[in-house]
Structures are given as structure tokens and as C-alpha cells.
Amino acid sequence: MFSLFYGLWKHLFSKMELHVLILGIDKAGKTTLLEKMKSVYSNIEGLPHDRIVPTVGLNIGRIEVTNRKLVFWDLGGQVGLRSIWEKYYEEAHAVVFVVDASCPSRFEDAKSALEKVLRHEDLRGAPLLILANKQDLPEAVSSEELARYLDLKKLDERVYMFEAVSAYDGMGIRESAEWLVEVMERSKRTEMLRVRASAMGPGSA
Ligand SMILES: Nc1nc2c(ncn2[C@@H]2O[C@H](COP(=O)(O)OP(=O)(O)OP(=O)(O)O)[C@@H](O)[C@H]2O)c(=O)[nH]1
Ligand SMILES: [Mg+2]
Description:
Distance between the termini: 25 Å
CATH class: Alpha Beta
InterPro entries: P-loop_NTPase, Small_GTP-bd, Small_GTPase_ARF, Small_GTPase_ARF/SAR
Radius of gyration: 17 Å
Number of helices: 6
Strand content: 15-25%
CATH superfamily: P-loop containing nucleotide triphosphate hydrolases
Binding site for Mg(2+): 31, 55
GO biological process, one term: intracellular protein transport
Largest sheet: 6 strands, mixed
Organism: Lupinus albus
Shape: globular
Keywords: ER-Golgi transport, GTP-binding, Hydrolase, Lipoprotein, Magnesium, Metal-binding, Myristate, Nucleotide-binding, Protein transport, Transport
Bound molecules: guanosine-5'-triphosphate, magnesium ion
CATH topology: Rossmann fold
Number of domains: 1
Mean pLDDT: 92
């Protein structure tokens, strides 16, 4: 009996879309990263770098990773746009926070923006992936160095990982996406969002 229910649960889970919020201050490389991720997983070339403009609204990317349907929400990181981020928190299964690892003069801004994200109640328990982007540049710091710079408190029991990536050459992209799927599958927050969506009726997941 248990295996029947477990099989059904696994089946329903595999159909459910998992929402991943991509945050970070302006010019961190969020949109470029999403385009790269789309091209890695769909074999369709993403937008060329010079066609990507600063984000004002919302970019959505649907990607299938190890049979899971992921929906990425990429928001603008300019100071005046950061107040919009919280409107997406409640529905997010996980958060990706992108940092330009080649630009230490902006680490302080990134740190305070991230700390504010982590303090928000609506993101309680959401797994967090912090990306040290632009590793193709020689001045980029490693993920370990970035972790030292950010010196994050209040991570408590949150599941998190730092990963070194390049939205240009694709370094670390697959590792990042696969880690996200793995932790979201096991996360209590995913279970909570699934129960909430099924209580709201069909089509809401
Ligand atoms: N060298 C290098 N440049 C990158 C990389 N990722 C992004 N860039 C460049 O960084 C700049 C900003 O990239 P975007 O993807 O627009 O940054 P964003 O975080 O989406 O910015 P907002 O939408 O304003 O929040 C662009 O000039 C990109 O070409 C990378 O991995 N390596
Ligand atoms: Mg953008």
C-alpha cells in the first residue's frame, strides 16, 4: 500500500512545476545566466550577450532538468526594482542569488541585498544557491573567497551552496541546476507548497 501511494506521490511530484527565483544586484549576470541555462538544457541557442538588456520586468525560463520541470523567474536588480522581488517570494521553491565575482567593490551591496532576502518570512526554508558568476574573467574570486566576503549570518538551518559559474562559458551550470532539483525534491518547503497548491484545487500547482 505504501509503495502505491509513494509511486503516486512521485508521479504527481514529477508533474509539478518548481519555481526558482533568480535574484542579485544589477549587472550580476542573472539574465545572461538564464539564457545560458536554457541553451544548455534545450540545445537552442540563447540570446547573444549583446542583445541582453537590463531587466525591468520579469523574464521567465522553463527548463526540464532530470525530468523535473523548473520555472525560473529572473527579476531586475537595480535599486529601484528590488522592492518587486518580495512579490514572488511566497510561490518560490528555491532562490538563486547571483553575484558578479569579478567586482569586489559591489560585494557589500550584494551582501546587504542578500541579507534582506534571507530575513523575509515568505522565504522561510527556501533552499539557497549563491553563484559566484563571471569565472571566465581572471579577476573573479572563487566561491570560497566569495563566501568569506559575504560572511553570511542567519543562514540557520537553511540548505545552501556556493557554486562558481560562468554565464558565458557555462562553467558550473549543470552542477547548479542539478543541485537545485535534488534539494527541492527533499525540501519541506516544496512539500508545503505542494499541499497548499492541491488544497487550492486542480491547475494551481
Ligand atoms: N565576462 C562575463 N560577463 C558576464 C557574465 N554574465 C554576464 N556578464 C555580463 O554582465 C553584464 C550584465 O549581465 P546581465 O545578465 O544583464 O545582468 P543582470 O544581473 O540580469 O542585470 P539586471 O537585469 O540589471 O539586474 C552584461 O554585460 C553581460 O554580458 C559572465 O559569466 N562573464
Ligand atoms: Mg537581467
